[in-house]
Design brief:
Distance between the termini: 43 Å
Helix content: 40-55%
Strand order of the largest sheet: 2-1-3-4-5
Largest sheet: 5 strands, mixed
Radius of gyration: 26 Å
Strand content: 5-15%
């Protein structure tokens, strides 16, 4: 009886969220009120043990790109938490698709109990509520309506030259008497002036970043945190707490420093990533605040920015893995270095981009010879192909009903569409790697072309699968495009760029030559054949 009681205990994650989109409900749904309600609920239940409180204050519910939510998911995956409690569904999320994915699939698979107090939902005590998707749809529609009203009001203020945003550009702060007006923050403004001065004198962006790091000057994100601001940059690696090439580059291009209010540079729709807005559509109002940089200095810097370009090294050996290999610890792209052997021949190795640019105090080398990486990936792919071949023999004796095949086809289509969106994001990320000089222009152009081909491939696969589903879904499951292509590679002896692009999503490199290969089709393979194939394919650790 005592053992049974222990087994029924739950480590609880209390999740709290509040954002501007909550409108008139802000007072009743305040962080303090939510925390009081949720912690009191936990204290009344003998089987519930509070593990931690996760608070996202000022983050939208229309997506799950929130720091506290991500931390909670990591704790769940680590086995530290097996119960999540929220005030209501809208606090968890307003996107009915992603919310449903967590509640219907992710949490049940991880053995996580979910409780929404005011909705009367407890996944342990009741079956799945058929009305739950409808509740989520209403939550999303509410968010859409509020978002439109907020956006209209925001644009009106922006066109009037008022500052709208939670955080100002580095070098400025909000006026204590008018939060829509910018005033100079003298400490950070001096750093901005110095950056422009050094650049005009001939210092490179990376050299400026290195100099500021050596002097212990806090980078913009860390400075804002030191000022007591709850700042989080979703576009920046969490481990990047120092000045970098991209930070300096961003400051040198920021027109705000000459006294012009520049807003509306990015736009975000629900369930989508922020997208850059064409410059002609930006909202720019001149002379709205005190300038940090005079116009002469600004124009000199902009002239230099347009003149400085890198020469192409046409002799550089192409890296078939470029854009796919990341440091497993800091997340930065791995860079390629060439070495000459005693006999004069060339050999290539990969190094962590953070270590290469900023030194050992920020990350370790993660050195991996290219030849070793190629052999590891080739051997692993061969093993995977062999396993799939064996699996095919098992599946050949299985009989799938038409309804089951339809569900499989629908799942496959969903995954293909997700992959298509992922490839589009990769095109943007490889451009960021190019901007930070982690890859050459030649490689950038090549990778962009690869991703374009992959976009076209996925689009064709989606079209073909939709036609196939509508015509007949009783064909062999191994005729799905990705699986058929995998089997076509059974005699593979050498890797090339096309195979890497087609097969691999990402490769993470750790110290001591340990790597993690994440395949494009890993989730599909697990989903389709989990009933007869128990080995983990998703993230193979080599």
């Amino acid at each position: 009886m005592k053992l049974q009681k222990v087994l029924n205990l739950f480590n609880v994650a209390v999740y709290i969220r509040l954002s501007r989109e909550d409108g008139d409900k802000e007072e009743s749904d305040s962080v303090g009120n939510q925390k009081k309600l949720l912690t009191e609920y936990v204290s009344r239940k003998d089987e519930l043990i509070l593990y931690d409180v996760y608070i996202d204050d000022g983050f939208t519910g229309t997506n799950f790109n929130r720091p506290a939510f991500k931390r909670m998911i990591k704790d769940i995956e680590a086995g530290k938490v097996n119960c999540v409690i929220v005030k209501d569904l809208s606090r968890f999320g307003r996107d009915y698709i992603d919310t449903g994915r967590y509640l219907e699939r992710e949490f049940p698979e991880l053995g996580v109990r979910f409780i929404s107090i005011t909705d009367g939902i407890d996944s342990m005590k009741q079956a799945y509520d058929m009305l739950l998707p409808i509740k989520n749809i209403f939550n999303e529609q509410y968010a859409r309506d509020i978002s439109k009203k907020v956006q209209t009001a925001v644009k009106t203020k922006q066109k009037a030259g008022e500052f709208i945003g939670a955080f100002t550009s580095y070098g400025y702060k909000k006026s204590p008497v008018d939060k829509n007006k910018l005033i100079i923050d003298e400490y950070s403004a001096d750093v901005v002036r110095r950056i422009f001065s050094l650049y005009i004198k001939g210092y490179g962006k990376q050299k400026i970043a290195k100099l500021l790091n050596e002097e212990g000057v806090l980078c913009p994100s860390e400075y804002k945190k030191a000022m007591g601001l709850n700042y989080h940059n979703p576009n920046r690696l969490e481990s990047t707490t120092y000045w970098s090439y991209s930070t300096i580059n961003s400051i040198l291009h920021r027109e705000m420093y000459v006294g012009n209010m520049v807003q509306g540079t990015k736009h975000q729709r629900m369930r989508s990533k922020q997208k850059k807005v064409d410059r002609e559509d930006w909202i720019i109002v001149e002379n709205t605040h005190e300038p940090i940089i005079d116009k002469e200095t600004w124009e000199k810097a902009q002239s230099l920015l347009h003149k400085r370009t890198r020469e192409l090294d046409l002799e550089t050996n192409k890296n078939i893995f470029a854009g796919f290999v990341k440091c497993g610890d800091c997340g930065r792209a791995m860079t390629k270095n060439m070495w000459r052997r005693a006999d004069g021949s060339k050999t290539y190795s990969l190094y962590c981009g953070t270590y290469k640019r900023n030194g050992k105090q920020y990350c370790t080398p993660h050195t991996l010879p290219m030849a070793v990486l190629e052999q590891i990936v080739l051997d692993d792919l061969k093993t995977l192909i062999q396993n799939v071949g064996d699996l095919r023999e098992l599946v050949s004796v299985q009989h799938f009903s038409a309804s089951k095949m339809k569900r499989i086809a629908d799942t496959e289509l969903s995954k293909l569409r997700s992959e298509l969106e992922r490839v589009k994001r990769l095109k943007q990320s490889v451009y960021e790697d190019y901007k930070e000089e982690l890859i050459t222009k030649e490689d950038f152009l090549s990778y962009r072309e690869d991703y374009q081909k992959k976009e076209e491939l996925y689009s064709k696969q989606i079209e073909a699968l939709e036609e196939k589903k509508n015509a007949s879904i009783t064909d062999d499951v191994f005729e799905t495009p990705w699986l058929k292509r995998l089997l076509d590679l059974k005699d593979i002896e050498k890797l090339d760029r096309d195979i890497v692009v087609e097969m691999i999503s990402e490769i993470k490199v750790y110290e001591n030559r340990k790597i993690k290969i994440i395949y494009n089709f890993s989730n599909e393979l697990e989903h389709l054949f989990s009933n007869i194939y128990s080995a983990e394919i998703g993230e193979k650790v080599v």
